[in-house]
Amino acid sequence: MSTPSTILLSALAPAAGWAVHAWRMRARLNTARRDPLTGLVTRDGFTRRATVLLKDPRAVVVLADVDRFKQINDTHGHAAGDALLKATADRLTHYVQDSGVAGRLGGDEFAAVVIDDHGTVGDLLAVLHGVLARPVEGQDPDVRTTVSLGWVRASDFPDDDLSGLLRRADEAMYAAKQARAGLRRAGLGRLLATVTGRRAGRTGARTASPVVEVAA
Q1: Are 71 and 81 in contact (CB under 8 A)?
Q2: Residues 6+ away with beta carbon under 8 Å from 131
Q3: Quick check: 128 and 149 in contact, CB under 8 A?
Q4: 3-class SS at 81?
Q5: Least packed by Cβ within 10 Å: which of 35, 84, 104, 213?
């Protein structure tokens, strides 16, 4: 005859097995949602978290693009380029911490959504811009470049969703890159005209885009 202890152990064994299985499945799913090189969330994971954060009127959308990335790859090799992307991701993650989300949208393009608690995000991004330009630890000192940043306050465009805000940040980033300004905010005026949410030269944009007033 089975004792109560034997019966209990018999019931717990399958439950433990399912718990381990569920844990492994969650781990695999979490891995699939992260970029294998940088460890950042992929576009889908970024979109889900960013959409929640944008419900806060203090939310700020940032878009970062590594300058001269192709030149780094061509000159120093793909391993050096990968190290640069990983360093950029790590530094952006440190900036965002637990108050927001950072993701790799593809190639050398990154995005983040943060909550600007004290209204000082412009100053903090200026500091971040300097941090992103530091040499990559453990690499040739020449494996370094700048990162152009564009940002926008969600409250400046309350009718825009994440896609619209990313477009504005993208335009600001491109203006900063063209002017070699390093950092530019969207929202003080129009930048480059776009179609279907992409500036000229990006997939989905028209081939000729008129240049209009650039926000300071």
Answers
A1: no
A2: 91, 95
A3: yes
A4: helix
A5: 213
Residues with Cβ within 8 Å of 147's Cβ and at least 6 positions away in sequence, in order, are 64, 65, 66, 67, 88, 129, 132, 133
CA distances from 132 to 49, 91, 93 (A): 23, 7, 11
The residues annotated with a catalytic role in the active site are 108
> Can you state the angle between helices 69-76 and 78-96, rounded to 10 degrees?
140
Amino acid at 189: G
Count other Cβ atoms within 10 Å, centred on residue 120: 10
Q: Give the Cα separation of 105 and 147 in Å (integer).
A: 15
**Both tokens of residue 4?**
């109560």
Separation of alpha carbons 155 and 169, rounded Å: 13
Where does residue 110 rank: exposed (0-12), middle (13-18), buried (19+ CB within 10 A)?
buried
Determine if the pTM surpasses 0.85.
Answer: no
